[in-house]
């Protein structure tokens, strides 16, 4: 039971992990992007169309990354260059992406694609329990869990990471010390979009293997919440995504076991858990929240 | 000022001419116009895809008919607006195909007594509104006969959207059929709570396979993720809505329950054109395999020849009226006898189904 819940958690948590990691990068640079939901959709749609046209899921993933990055570039332009309100720009971008992908993706709803196939890691996948749990997924799943420590290393142990965090904490100081703050913020937001695009690719190319309008179903917003849950830390984002995914999988498995709980109640549990997590971490997040973000939220007062 | 008035008058004049020309062109063509309204995308291999296949049959068979379609129309005041628009364009017959379109259809019917509206699955009719529906649990039962013989784990997984009577009919028919050839069968059900959430449907399919199901079926829109997940994890599929789903799991395909609206739609359109609308309005047209409203999908290679023959023999008995699906003895999964040996199910017994048959795990959610 535990093994299958965890396995489901890893599977269902993967797109959320990509999006959360992307949002961690953007928010560490002081930019909140509520358009993640839109970037996921754009990635899912572009990845699906490209795979349908070329028969290559790898090209599809690349297209998804590019499309997610491009969508977020719009947000970067709005908030870094034009200095528009971050919340408003993100939400508008989300609705724009929903509309555009519904329209562009229309003819592809019926198309069958060459999906991203599972790839068991030779040797390791034969290990008892752990083999199925960790080493029998697709490349995008492995990618997500390798990416998290990589982003952690870059953010906390490289000059680039330091520059990015400096911009997110005290933009004026970073600017005075000679950092190209606008460039750094553009790069962070676009990186975040690229990862959200890959999240979309996992949804449409590996997980559901089909394209339907609005198929991100709120995963982007969960990612934004999980960033706070993870206190802007890439490794804790892994924990958050797996827990969220596991509860998501668990509520479905509970039903299949015939437990007499309403599916409509079970449906709420992943979101309830997210709220509880935020509640418990309310104090911790105040200390770790990048200073720059406080301006975003205080600007709303 | 004068120039503005002149310009406006000119623009108005041009529009008037265009409108007049348009109306004249329509009057000249004199085609019989039929409108179809769908709640989802018309090519998702699901419910709407099948209604649209029916629409295509009308176009192919009846050359003198012009067809209008509208998809992704929510079950709100929006659908009334869409139907009004179609009527303005000259439609004399409308097919509002989604369950929630019933009241809007009745309303539009009141305002336009000269237009005929045919609603799919409704329980109300009026002077110019009729309903039609196919008993798709019949082919679901037949698919169960095949699935019960093909499964190796004796476990069927079912992904459903909501616990409504139509869904319970399908879950029960599939399980009842499978258990009649293999009493060890258990069916596990997951409700996603949404007609279309591809990620959740895929995870539900995975969860059912993890719990030992090696046959997956479903009752929700956008059926692809469940079939594709079955293919990915090398288990069997019983299709729902469309026989064309076979191509997404060719190796594991058993068979499926499919709609076949084409012949019915052609008949309705023809009758209404010939002024025989009274055959269809103010009544509920219901049919199963015998009327051809629903069909059993072709078998996949996973089903042995002898099993195929047995299933087809039972299909013939149903068509000939010698066998009725859900005839007694019927028990629910608590052991309560609902129908005695030999008793036939009534209209209400079927249409108000709210229980699981023997072999389904758990309780129907309230």
Task: Itemize the secondary structure elements and their pairings.
The complex is a heterodimer of chains A (301) and B (366).
Chain A: H1 2-28, H2 36-54, H3 57-81, H4 86-105, H5 130-134, H6 139-157, H7 159-169, H8 171-176, H9 181-207, H10 219-229, H11 234-256, H12 263-266, H13 269-280, H14 282-288, H15 291-298
Helix pairs in contact in A: 1-6, 1-9, 1-10, 1-11, 2-3, 2-4, 2-9, 2-10, 3-4, 3-9, 6-7, 6-11, 7-9, 10-11, 10-13, 11-13
Chain B: H1 2-29, E1 32-37, H2 47-61, E2 65-70, H3 77-88, E3 91-96, H4 102-111, E4 116-120, E5 129-134, H5 137-150, E6 155-160, H6 165-181, E7 186-191, H7 198-210, E8 215-219, H8 224-232, E9 236-241, E10 253-259, H9 262-273, E11 284-287, E12 294-296, H10 305-319, E13 330-331, E14 337-339, H11 347-351
Parallel strand pairs in B: 1-2, 1-3, 3-4, 4-5, 5-11, 6-7, 6-8, 8-9, 9-10
Antiparallel strand pairs in B: 10-12, 13-14
